[in-house]
Design a protein that fits this description.
mainly alpha, Helix Hairpins, 148 residues, single chain
Length: 148
């Protein structure tokens, strides 16, 4: 019984090895296909990097908008306090309304910033995935190229 199992295992290993072996022509076709896949992945990586740069620019722009609106809001607060101290209620009311408008713009810019940061995270994930797949395909291509 043991001899049968050992013999069958040996034959199975031998037949699996010959089934996996490729002819040089098949290996050359595989190399060509892997090269095409790698070229496509390189293009995807470049596109992902471009998307990430655009999203990073958008995030920086949103931060600058928040800083600018914050500065304007603080200036409006100072003007409101100055008008209240001078007894100009109409002017103080105007600057209070301006400050509220700036607060609304700040909230809107913060939402935009959150969306930009979310897009950057997605771009990073997509880029990492494409780079990982590209390296895997490069390894497969190199293994197939050794058989040629």
């Amino acid at each position: 019984m043991r001899i049968k199992i050992i013999t069958l295992a040996g034959l199975l290993a031998f037949s699996a090895g010959t089934a996996v072996a490729q002819t040089p022509a098949q290996a050359a076709q595989d190399v060509q296909q892997y090269n095409q896949d790698i070229q496509q992945l390189n293009q995807d990586v470049r596109n992902n990097v471009g998307d990430m740069r655009k999203d990073q620019w958008d995030a920086a722009h949103d931060r600058r908008d928040i800083d600018r609106d914050d500065t304007l809001r603080n200036a409006d607060k100072l003007r409101e306090e100055r008008d209240l101290a001078a007894g100009n209620l109409k002017g103080a009311e105007y600057w209070n309304q301006q400050r509220k408008d700036e607060n609304a713009e700040i909230r809107h810019d913060k939402r935009d910033l959150a969306h930009s940061l979310h897009d950057i995270r997605n771009d990073n994930r997509r880029l990492a995935k494409d780079v990982k797949v590209r390296h895997h395909d490069i390894d497969k291509r190199n293994r197939a190229a050794r058989k040629v």
